[in-house]
Design goal:
There is one protein chain. By secondary structure, the protein is mainly alpha-helical. It has a two-stranded antiparallel ribbon. It starts with a helix and ends in a 5-residue tail after the last helix.
Length: about 300
Amino acid sequence: MSRAEAVEAPRRDPEPGPGRRPGVLWSLGLFRSELVTVLRRWRTLALLGVLAAVPILIGIAVKADTGGGGGRGGGGAGGPAFITQITNNGLFLVFAALAATLPVFLPMAVGVVAGDAVAGEANSGTLRYLLVAPAGRTRLLLAKYASVLAFCLIATLVVAVSALAVGALLFPLGEVTTISGTQISFADGLLRAVAIAGVVTVSLAGMAALGLFVSTLTNSGIAAMASTVGLLITVQILGQIPQLHAIGPYLFPHYWLSFADVLREPVYWDQLVKNFELQALYVAVFGSAAWARFTTKDITA
């Protein structure tokens, strides 16, 4: 392809015409294809395996440390407080595992998948052929972002289900003591665990949009993945510097652990709403930036 042809490429990608506009089923098929492609990669399976192993290690460590003994732990919003409750109720292993994986392991896995979404296709030479289908760049980008969000949910559920299985195997199950000190039934606690998994998934939406934007900036999948993970680490460090506390509420990980407020009675919504609003802001800004970059990018591979 000549340079002149490459410049014209963004306007020559086939867009759906009046007689062949892709329908909803076609769009769902594109999303399914993208998701299957993501889940078939050995790298993705390895990431999910690591995430599943974290609750197992936590459960074994707590079991070995306590010898299965009980003892009430204090309520609180952090991981250590959840860990002290595990010996009394294995359901708390779900909350402790999510608190342990959310700051680093879960977002790193999402960063790898999101960073590879576009750049990986360009690096392997398949992106150009994907655009031959009557999808258009916008629809393809939306399908890729949807597949990354689906991976966020799958990764979160892998941690939660692994933790629930290990918790049920190693520790007793029963009524759940909330952070507020009240008790709720095990069924209610299980529903709240599902709600927390949903909150964690939403919390990763901003990170996914950022990674997708980075992925549109380069044709190297490795560079995109490394840059996304590097940004995550940088933002985490900035959030821990006291002198920069003023910018903390604007950093996407700031409200990640607000999911603990789901375990209050009644549920405390203030931090949760701020988290949802912040993630929506990141999705809007970096999603728009990814769209602007991808729809005007020279596709030469």
